[in-house]
Write a structure and sequence with these properties.
With 328 residues, the chain is mainly α. The chain has one domain. The chain is built from 13 helices and four strands. It has a two-stranded antiparallel ribbon. The longest helix is centred in the C-terminal third of the chain and has 27 residues. The two termini are 43 Å apart.
Length: 328
């Protein structure tokens, strides 16, 4: 095997190919549910990959990324409520609103670090949750049905297959970009800021600015996943901004492998897949699900991708025996 074809390189490619085959297999088996289910996995993989940029590359433990998923969902539902079904309008509102909010949240939160950063991002997400709950004219706590899904000319995300294909393409492009970012100057500087912000500042690069840019990109990308989720469910709800959603995204990233390219994809697949399997076995699935997640985290501290990428240590070369001058 070529040195370039390592498990960490092959894994995301194989997963994306497997995801591409799912609609054909589901159609052949006459099981349309699996297309919707795997579309949900793709959407959450996009959100987890967006979080991985801030958490894995930038070292920013954000407990408020559900805020951006929720805003992305309402960027579809609110215009649709007023009769606007143009997908480009939905996308523009989604990226613009999430990017602007992420800039505000990041600018304030990055003045702190550690637990304070986590709590501030959580507080902003909760503020967004209660703000949407208070909008009684838009459903309030009951949520808001999407009256018209995002339409890009003749391409409508209201159908499952177009939505699935769009989510797959977005995830593939995001995965490719994250892989390139690891070795790009910005990505290397961002990862350096995670390791030692003082050194990055000392060489003339402002660590906080790098982290803010990463946080804004992460928030806007996470908003796109919320937009796709609203089209998939034909519904937007304040519950998508709940702190539990942020926690699930963090678990997906940690489970798959923090800072790895394929980690969020693997984490979303295992997390949602395991949840679905356990739900089919028992109504008390959470009692089993929690310990399993903890066990996986303890066994693979670098995540599932870290376990897959482990290589056996090469044998140490034998020490040559040098004969002494008087030897035979």
């Amino acid at each position: 095997m070529s040195s370039r074809l390592t498990p960490t390189v092959l894994l995301p490619v194989l997963l994306l190919v497997a995801f591409a085959v799912v609609p054909f297999v589901a159609t052949a088996l006459e099981q349309p549910f699996w297309i919707s289910f795997f579309a949900r996995i793709l959407i959450y993989a996009i959100a987890a990959s967006a979080l991985n940029l801030a958490l894995g590359y930038g070292g920013l433990v954000s407990f408020g990324h559900a805020l951006f998923m929720g805003l992305g969902s309402y960027a579809v539902a609110l215009p649709a409520f007023h009769g606007i079904a143009n997908g480009w309008v939905h996308l523009g509102l989604c990226v613009g609103a999430c990017g602007l909010v992420a800039w505000g949240v990041g600018a304030i939160s990055l003045r702190t670090s550690g637990m304070a950063f986590i709590m501030i991002t959580l507080a902003f997400a909760q503020m967004g949750y209660f703000a949407l709950v208070s909008l009684k004219q838009y459903g309030g706590d009951d949520g808001l049905p999407v009256a018209a899904t995002s339409s890009f000319g003749g391409f409508d995300l209201g159908s499952t297959l177009p939505l699935y294909g769009t989510a797959l393409v977005v995830l593939a492009l995001l995965t490719w970009w994250m892989a390139r970012l690891r070795v790009a100057p910005f990505g290397m500087a961002l990862r350096g800021a995670r390791q030692n912000a003082r050194r990055i500042n000392a060489i003339g690069l402002e660590a906080r600015r790098l982290q803010l840019v990463a946080f804004v990109i992460s928030g806007a990308t996470c908003g796109v996943s919320g937009m796709l989720l609203a089209n998939l469910n034909a519904f937007a709800s304040p519950s998508s901004l709940a702190w539990t959603v942020s926690g699930e995204l963090i678990v997906m990233v940690v489970l798959g492998g923090i800072g790895t390219v394929a980690g969020p994809m693997v984490g979303a697949l295992v997390f949602l897949g395991l949840e679905e399997v356990l739900k089919g076995w028992t109504e008390h699935w959470m009692v089993i699900f929690g310990p399993l997640i903890v066990l996986m985290a303890l066994v693979g501290r670098r995540g599932i991708v870290g376990l897959i990428a482990l290589r056996p240590k090469a044998p140490r070369p034998a020490t040559p025996v040098v004969a002494s001058e008087g030897g035979v």
